[in-house]
């Protein structure tokens, strides 16, 4: 199948990601090498990365990465930031000259602590940050907050992903989790803000495919105050994950079954064979029907405590996973994994709709408790 500029579209974008479940820091050069193998899955119209653990000296501050079209957008955004936060530091995001990366916007980062006043006492710091991100992205023309988590950052642009990684000097960062994306846009524009990953707080999503349920998903998250402004369907997935995992406190396994649920025929069978499990899935589809993702997709999600890989219910986009010691790898092709870890302990192709979940070991006990409690609430 021929895509934009006559280049071959090998079933879509390139995805790769990995984490150390022990929390070991890995140089960003590894994620560049991994995504470079998938060069032919992109066409130079977008790519990007997210790294976790990259700001240890500012780990308690929200790191805002913002792109500005002009100085006016920067001035207007900074007025909002100064009113709502104390600023621990700000600077241009470091870059190096790459001949193929052109027409860059103003790229700036801020390390922020929310300043909640008496009127904000009923809102959490995370909700306060989301409110600010939505305010800037929705009301300031030419300003786009594309990263807003703690001790993490997203880096994206128009270009091939390996060029973008070197443009942002990722070889000078170290993180315990990295995800990367090479974009092959089909029905949405290729522009700096529309490159992957899409983030909110510490959630970062890279995606291969098309979310045909985008309008229903968008209307659903907008009921909770999220606003989709980046002109790309993937953005809504980040907001769905924040809503379900942080706000509704669903376990990762359950949230994945919301995004890619069993078919009704399978639920009916489960209700006959394993009634409790079938009842859980029936309840999820009834409660979260508007959060279900339709269309072909494979996603990799990074977050502060781990990494997630998930494909649609028919696996219309490829996804492969592997392990080596404490490392978990997820990618759209085995080659992206073998490039940085040739001698794996295990390699497997996850079944359609079955998540691959990696967790930092220090959080695994807490996560398990949430799973048990959530299942009890749903069944009841």
Question: Could you explain the architecture of this structure?
Answer:
α1 runs antiparallel to α4 and α8 packs antiparallel against α9. The chain is α+β, with helices and mostly antiparallel strands and 380 residues long. The N terminus and C terminus are likely disordered. It has a seven-stranded antiparallel β-sheet. The chain has a single domain, classed as Aminohydrolase, N-terminal nucleophile (Ntn) domain (Glutamine Phosphoribosylpyrophosphate, subunit 1, domain 1), CATH 3.60.20. The protein is globular, with a radius of gyration of 20 Å. The longest helix has 16 residues. The termini are far apart.
List keywords for this structure.
31% helix, single chain, 7-stranded antiparallel sheet, disordered C terminus, 380 residues, disordered N terminus, 11 helices, 18 strands, 26% strand, 5-stranded antiparallel sheet, Glutamine Phosphoribosylpyrophosphate, subunit 1, domain 1, alpha+beta
What is the number of independent domains?
A: 1
**Strand content of the residues, in percent?**
25-35%
Q: What letter string, H or E per element, gives the SSE order? A: EEHEEHEEHEEHEEEEHHHHHEEEEHEEH
CA-based gyration radius: 20 Å
Helix content class: 25-40%
**CATH-assigned fold name:** Glutamine Phosphoribosylpyrophosphate, subunit 1, domain 1
CATH class: Alpha Beta
Number of helices: 11
Which regions have little confidence, pLDDT < 50, spanning 5+ residues? 1-6, 364-380
Molecular shape: globular
What is the total tally of β strands? 18
CATH homologous superfamily? Aminohydrolase, N-terminal nucleophile (Ntn) domain
Mean pLDDT: 92
Class by helix and strand content? alpha+beta
Q: Main β-sheet: number of strands, strand sense, barrel status?
A: 7 strands, antiparallel
- Read across the widest sheet, the strand sequence of neighbours is 8-3-10-1-16-15-17
